[in-house]
Amino acid sequence: MNDDFLVLPAIDVRQGRVVRLNQGDYARETVYGESPLTLAQDYAAAGSRWLHLVDLDAARAGGYTLLPLLREIGADLQVQTGGGVRSEADVEALLEAGAARVVVGTLAVREPERVLAWIARFGAQRITLALDTRADDDGEWRLSAAGWTEASPWRLADLLQRYADAGLVHLLCTDIARDGMLSGFNLSLYRWLSQTWPALRIQASGGVRSLDDIRAARAAGAGAAILGRGLLEGKFALTEALAC
């Protein structure tokens, strides 16, 4: 069990609104009432030290659009953020705007050599690798990219090993089948990841619905849990989750 476990409430933003997608499908969107800034301030007031902020428009089209929001939120919280990060200049801009960590997903799958160079330049503590995965018919974990709209030929194990060999620290791994579905974390995925790459700080994401799911992710070896729809819909309180 990980004794230094983090809880990160998530805010996904599309067209200026707080939303959640079901299984990464932009046509299956739920919109929530609060503004992203107000919600982030509420999370800080509840005791959160971290926030996971996603630019969903940019995740599909490129070009991170939330820099003003990031600057405001960063006054109260350490922010891990991504969506549309396509260049070294993008990483630099987010860090300069106050991001504690920059999340890189699509480019990490499409052009790993570039992202490996970013880890070397900015440091492993400043980059979170987001590898979003689906199990194929043979039970092999395979990767998706571009906001989950694009399949990849990579196996999760093969690509992750390249990054681990280069000193990767933070891995956010999502079972796409679980995301936004309130069906619980895929614990077998996180057990396998933590046992195979014990030096990684694994962030569990996708499907959390209860405090027991958070405790189970921690017991499975994850170093953090990303809380999305379950938190937004009041399945549990953030103060309770932080106490886990």
Please render the helix and strand layout as text.
Elements: E1 6-14, E2 17-22, E3 25-32, H1 36-45, E4 50-55, H2 56-61, H3 67-73, E5 78-82, H4 88-96, E6 101-104, H5 106-110, H6 112-122, E7 127-135, E8 141-145, E9 150-155, H7 156-165, E10 170-175, H8 187-196, E11 201-205, H9 211-219, E12 224-227, H10 229-232, H11 238-243
Parallel strand pairs: 1-4, 1-12, 4-5, 5-6, 6-7, 7-10, 10-11, 11-12
Antiparallel strand pairs: 1-2, 2-3, 7-8, 8-9
What does this molecule look like?
- Belongs to the HisA/HisF family.
- Its EC number is 5.3.1.16.
- It is an enzyme of class 5 (isomerase).
- This protein is an alpha/beta fold and 244 residues long.
- The chain has a single domain, classed as TIM Barrel (Alpha-Beta Barrel).
- An eight-stranded parallel β-barrel has the order 1-4-5-6-7-10-11-12, surrounded by five helices.
- A hairpin with a 2-residue loop joins strand 1 and strand 2.
- The two termini are 12 Å apart.
- The model has no long low-confidence stretch (mean pLDDT 91).
